[in-house]
Design brief:
Layout (H helix, E strand, L loop, with lengths): L4 H23 L7 H17 L23 E3 L8 E3 L2 H15 L8 E8 L2 E8 L2 E7 L5 E3 L2 H4 L17 E9 L2 H14 L7 H9 L4 H6 L3 E11 L7 H10 L9 E4 H15 L7 E8 L2 H7 L1 E2 L2 E2 L2 E5 L4 E13 L4 E13 L2 E7 L3 H7 L6 E5 L7 E5 L24 E3 L6 E3 L6 H12 L11 H9 L6 H4 L4 H5 L6 H13 L2 E3 H7 L7 H11 L2 H6 L2 H5 L6 H12 L1 H13 L2 E3 L14 E5 L7 H10 L3 E3 L8 E4 L5 H9 L3 E2 L1 H11 L2
Parallel strand pairs: 2-13, 21-22, 23-24, 23-25, 25-26
Antiparallel strand pairs: 1-6, 3-9, 3-10, 4-5, 4-7, 7-8, 10-13, 11-12, 14-15, 14-17, 15-16, 15-20, 17-18, 19-20
The structure holds 2-(butylsulfanyl)adenosine.
Length: about 675
């Protein structure tokens, strides 16, 4: 059947509409219709094209992803070379840049010199060639003269139009810009890689490059890539405006994406202001940038200035301090934390990165050491972005010296020589020395004196380290036995500071139960949990005596925390420390919870059968919170049985013993009553 004109019209109408929505979504970042509407139109177009395959055009929105992978990329010679940029690293460099321009242009001081400012995107430079408005070729920059043909891959990028909008575009138009991977797409890609056990990409630029280098465009299509246009190459068949800014704005009217941060400023001062503004915004941008590009705005001036070797005289890239640097790992050491966690740390040859000098980087745990494959002696890439702690990104294997050996988790604690244990399901290895390990003691003391714990002012890290090393302090209780003489003789301490410190140790004796529980440093018991425990149990004795089950009855206490609490108080040493602290005079007001006044105090309940409206664990938790014990079998001591459908022998026994039985509805009503 011959397709009629109305089919052709409908096809074009659908394509135009989809292009328009796509433009709003990907180029303007301003979607106007829900995704579902876009999908519906897309499916409609697809169906119509399936029915009329002879009417499919290469620029149809359905034709972004090609069917066949390539065998290899072919080479493309750039008609106009793709240039690079000179760099500036300081305000002085920028002032010198403006001076060079003014001298060459013989511009007198009163005449302002306008610059277009754009973020320097950290991606891959590409060239797009449009003929009669249709995208016919995409190529990488390569060495500037010859790149690779990546047409099939660029076609999959939604912010790149397959057909230009409007009708005033040049017959031939080469557009240049940067293809990059936004941060979110990069994180998603790496999450997926880690889940599959694959090596993650080092940074978004490598991820963008890797995604464009795919021979199968289907893979590129799955990656989140965007393009921002920053200049034109070959143009024929139409005149373009006479400033850089106006040219970019023109590109935007044809459906090409340009950077929303572009601005026009005057002179080096204006450039430096813009640099400061963008630096402050840098971490909030959806993509990574490594500097700002400044270009003389007037095209005529650009032409007068021309080029030197491979870079234009009229543009410069003012780079941010590098966020990645290469340095050498001098050693890999193991640190012991408060809970005994053993953390591998890379000791680095100091390196200036992200604006600070870095000489240590945590390697987190042995899984990370293995993932990186890092060894002492290796050259590594260190990254410090924003305020994030410095990270070892990867090892530069080509630079590995011949004699390195792989890192092993030590068998014994480097501080106390106790055995190091690693629970199979956990990434963290721990020293089993507990508080007999000096490192753990130091950390435990630092925690004990911290502001939210016992708030002992004037007892800094260095002093604690020294007190532990001199064996003057073993446990927190020893703090209360320190003499003025001992303190005053410590390094950097004098008579006055010793007196002040003793006073603040004395003051800490009067505390609150929640602070005291927190100060004990039980694993996973932070400030909030400590407060919960204080309110729920009312006294340290009650917390110490609580069973796993009773602990879990406290709000927000789950099985893991309950286990840590039980095991903490199980250790004789910890009980002794608490006793010693109390004898030293540490005291607090117990919190009023009269357990005997709880509605079900002293009662024993049994749950049997299936509960349909409340999980059994929750029912149990609520009963415990009301003061009841929950038992597994019915006896004459049972006070009440809750029986759901399917209850068997326990229900029978209850009836025999004449014990009250509630069904689930009655039970829930009773709970509601008690909980007021
Ligand atoms: S203009 C003749 N503008 O930086 C001017 N380049 O070091 C050519 N880049 O290869 C480039 N953002 O990949 C320009 N807004 C921007 C840019 C930018 C990133 C890259 C581009 C180029 C490299 C030069």
């Amino acid at each position: 059947m011959k397709p009629d004109t109305s089919t052709t019209q409908l096809l074009e109408q659908l394509r135009d509409q989809l292009r328009h929505y796509n433009y709003q979504y990907y180029v303007l970042d301003d979607p106007q219709v829900p995704d579902a509407e876009y999908d519906r139109l897309f499916q409609q177009l697809k169906k119509l094209e399936d029915e009329n395959p002879e009417l499919i055009t290469p620029e149809s929105p359905t034709q972004r992803v090609g069917a066949q992978p390539l065998a290899a990329f072919t080479q493309v010679r750039h008609e106009m070379p793709m240039l690079s940029l000179d760099n500036a690293f300081s305000a002085d460099d920028m002032q010198a840049f403006e001076k060079r321009l003014r001298d060459r242009l013989k511009l007198s001081e009163e005449i302002p010199l306008e610059f277009a400012c754009e973020p320097k995107l950290d991606g891959i430079a590409v060239s797009l060639l449009y003929e009669n408005g249709l995208l016919i070729r995409g190529a990488t920059r390569g060495d500037g003269s010859t790149g690779e043909d990546i047409t099939l891959n660029v076609r999959t990028i939604p912010s790149i139009p397959l057909r230009l909008m409007g009708d005033d575009y040049p017959e031939r138009l080469e557009v240049r810009g940067e293809i990059y991977m936004p941060r979110r797409g990069f994180e998603r890609l790496n999450d997926q890689a880690l889940k599959r056990g694959d090596k993650p990409f080092v940074n978004p630029r490598n991820a963008a490059a890797g995604s464009l280098r795919q021979l199968d465009p289907k893979i590129t299509a799955q990656r989140s890539l965007e393009m921002c246009c920053y200049s034109v190459g070959v143009v024929s068949g139409a005149e373009l405006p006479d400033t850089h800014e106006a040219i970019l704005r023109k590109l935007a009217t044809w459906g090409l994406r340009i950077n929303a941060e572009m601005a026009i400023v005057e002179g080096a001062e204006g450039c430096l202001d813009y640099f400061d503004r963008l630096s402050a915004k840098r971490n909030q941008l959806a993509y990574e940038i490594d500097g700002i590009v400044f270009k003389v705005n007037a095209i005529e001036l650009q032409q007068q200035l021309g080029f030197v070797s491979r870079a234009p005289r009229w543009a410069i890239a003012h780079k941010f301090p590098a966020q990645e640097e290469i340095t050498v790992v001098n050693a890999i050491e193991f640190q012991v934390g408060r809970t005994g966690a053993i953390t591998p740390v890379a000791r680095l040859e100091p390196v200036f990165v992200g604006g600070v000098t870095v000489s240590n980087a945590t390697l987190h745990n042995m899984d990370e050491v293995e993932r990186l494959g890092v060894r002492a002696g290796d050259s590594v890439i260190i990254r410090r972005a924003g305020d994030v702690i410095p990270q070892v990104v990867s090892v530069v294997l080509e630079r590995r010296p011949a004699t390195t050996v792989s890192v092993q988790l030590p068998e014994r604690c480097p501080v106390c020589d106790a055995e190091i244990v690693r629970v199979e399901s956990e990434a963290v290895a721990r020293c089993s020395g507990g508080l007999s390990c000096a490192a753990q003691r130091k950390e435990a003391l630092k925690h004990y004196v911290s502001r939210k714990a016992m708030d002992i002012d004037g007892l800094g890290e260095k002093l604690i380290d020294a007190l532990v090393e001199k064996e003057l302090v073993h446990s927190p209780a020893d703090l209360y036995r320190l003499h003025h003489r001992q303190l005053a003789s410590m390094e950097r301490m004098g008579d006055k500071s010793a007196t002040k410190l003793l006073q603040s140790i004395e003051n800490s004796k009067s505390t609150e139960l929640a602070n005291f529980i927190y100060a004990l440093g039980i694993r996973e018991v932070g400030e909030a949990t400590a407060r919960t425990l204080a309110v729920h149990f009312g006294s340290i004795e009650a917390v110490m005596a609580a069973s796993d089950e009773q602990l879990q009855a406290a709000p927000d206490v789950g099985p893991v925390v309950a286990k840590y609490i039980v095991s903490f108080f199980h250790q004789v040493h910890n009980r002794e420390v608490i006793e010693a602290l109390r004898s030293a005079g540490v005291h607090w007001q117990d919190v009023e919870v009269d357990v005997k006044s709880l509605p079900l105090a002293g009662q024993t309940w049994v749950l049997t059968g299936t509960l349909e409206q409340m999980p059994r664990t929750e029912a149990k938790k609520q009963l415990l919170a009301l003061g009841a014990k929950v038992a597994g079998s019915v006896s004459k001591n049972t006070d009440c049985v809750v029986a759901g459908p399917g209850a068997g022998s326990k229900l029978q026994k209850a009836e025999e013993l004449d014990i009250p039985v509630l069904d689930e509805t009655q039970f829930l009503a009773r709970l509601a009553e008690y909980n007021g």
